[in-house]
């Protein structure tokens, strides 16, 4: 392997820049030529591929978003699109790719490897933490801290007005943002797509906790079957005398300076990915499990359900008295 390329794909996540920097610099350290692909797989199809040097990644480790930009590519979903992408990388003599993203990114990478035999390794970059094969994904730590900051502020006003707040957080298919931010903000209930909601139990909990607290907070993951608005309406129906408000945090959760944990995670996985490629690894995602770098095949990495830890959901209930 002499020439490698790096891209970011899917939703951006804080720490992606630290990951790009690590890949570029580890490549150069190993005497490789490194290219950057703009706008994810879209840029691969359209040939938006630029050479990167050590300077091109200077002063980015602390920046949110991704300097390479990102997209969810429709064209790469077709065989013709992937064929065009393959021709573009062959033209530049690119031997291998490192893709930073989530489940969609790795699904695309698997197809590309299958059809064109391109060596690809992945790095987990998504605020949702919905990938197996790594305890945490790049961006998750920053995002949950953003949520905690926002919910703490909402708690101040909720407490002052004796209100119930339903707060919807991101997580299209995953409740991991909701779960950890819920525990750390003392939420009275957390609703996530992976588990069925027992509304009776939640209503009872809200009623019971009233004697101990003047404000109550229910965190709802965006991917929950009902969503924040419906949950807020149900609470209003059950308790017409409660003062209920809904707050949807939205894309604020995806931005901001990456936390120290995300910068270190992205740096470690960037180094590991380049070294992994040089060792002959392909079709796998580099992750960190219990402090150790491990590689997981793409088809296993995209299934995150085991990460929903019953202990975390139990903690919410126990501590919501
Ligand atoms: O993939 C991360 C994520 O933040 C999801 O939690 C959310 O559903 C989605 O991206 C929203 O992305 P967009 O608004 O960019 O389509």
UniProtKB/TrEMBL annotation:
InterPro entries linked to this entry: ATP_PFK, ATP_PFK_prok-type, PFKA_ATP_prok, Phosphofructokinase_CS, Phosphofructokinase_dom, PKF_sf
UniProt activity-regulation remark: Allosterically activated by ADP and other diphosphonucleosides, and allosterically inhibited by phosphoenolpyruvate.
Name the record gives this protein: ATP-dependent 6-phosphofructokinase
PANTHER family: ATP-DEPENDENT 6-PHOSPHOFRUCTOKINASE, PHOSPHOFRUCTOKINASE
Active site as annotated: 128
Binding-site residues for substrate, renumbered to this chain: 126-128, 163, 170-172, 222, 245, 251-254
Pathway the protein contributes to: Carbohydrate degradation; glycolysis; D-glyceraldehyde 3-phosphate and glycerone phosphate from D-glucose: step 3/4
Keyword Iron-sulfur: no
Pfam families in UniProt: PFK
Protein's GO biological process: canonical glycolysis; fructose 1,6-bisphosphate metabolic process; fructose 6-phosphate metabolic process
Subcellular location: Cytoplasm
Entry EC number(s): 2.7.1.11
Protein function: Catalyzes the phosphorylation of D-fructose 6-phosphate to fructose 1,6-bisphosphate by ATP, the first committing step of glycolysis.
HAMAP family assigned to the protein according to its UniProt record, in alphabetical order: Phosphofructokinase_I_B1 (MF_00339)
EC main group: transferase
Annotated binding of ADP, by residue: 21-25, 155, 186-188, 213-215
Residues noted as binding Mg(2+) in the record, renumbered to the chain: 103
Catalysed reaction, written as an equation: beta-D-fructose 6-phosphate + ATP = beta-D-fructose 1,6-bisphosphate + ADP + H(+)
Assembly and interaction partners: Homotetramer.
GO molecular function per UniProt: 6-phosphofructokinase activity; AMP binding; ATP binding; fructose-6-phosphate binding; identical protein binding; metal ion binding; monosaccharide binding
Record keywords: Allosteric enzyme, ATP-binding, Cytoplasm, Glycolysis, Kinase, Magnesium, Metal-binding, Nucleotide-binding, Transferase
């Amino acid at each position: 392997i002499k020439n490698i390329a790096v891209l970011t794909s899917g939703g951006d996540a804080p720490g992606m820049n630290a990951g790009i920097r690590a890949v570029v610099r580890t490549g150069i350290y190993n005497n490789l030529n490194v290219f950057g692909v703009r706008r994810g797989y879209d840029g691969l199809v359209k040939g938006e591929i630029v050479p990167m040097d050590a300077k091109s990644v200077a002063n980015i480790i602390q920046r949110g978003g991704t300097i390479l930009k990102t997209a969810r590519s429709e064209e790469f979903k077709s065989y013709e699109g992937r064929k065009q992408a393959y021709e573009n990388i062959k033209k530049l003599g690119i031997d291998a790719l490192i893709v930073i993203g989530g489940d969609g990114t790795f699904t695309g990478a698997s197809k590309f490897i299958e059809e064109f035999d391109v060596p690809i390794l992945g790095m987990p970059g998504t605020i949702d933490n919905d990938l197996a094969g790594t305890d945490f994904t790049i961006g998750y730590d920053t995002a949950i801290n953003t949520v905690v900051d926002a919910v703490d502020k909402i708690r101040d006003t909720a407490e002052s007005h004796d209100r119930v707040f339903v707060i919807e957080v991101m997580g299209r298919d995953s409740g991991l943002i909701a779960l950890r931010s819920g525990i750390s903000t003392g939420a009275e209930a957390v609703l996530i797509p992976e588990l069925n909601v027992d509304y009776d139990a939640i209503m009872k909990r809200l009623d019971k906790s009233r004697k101990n607290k003047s404000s109550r907070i229910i965190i709802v993951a965006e991917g929950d079957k009902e969503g924040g608005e419906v949950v807020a309406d149900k609470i209003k129906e059950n308790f017409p005398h409660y003062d209920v408000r809904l707050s949807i945090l939205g894309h604020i959760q995806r931005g901001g300076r990456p936390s120290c944990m995300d910068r270190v995670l992205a740096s470690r996985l960037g180094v590991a990915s380049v070294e992994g490629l040089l060792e002959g690894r392909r079709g796998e995602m580099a992750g960190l499990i219990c402090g150790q770098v491990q590689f997981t095949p793409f088809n296993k990495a995209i299934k995150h359900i085991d990460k929903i830890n019953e202990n975390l959901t139990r903690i919410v209930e126990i501590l919501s008295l």
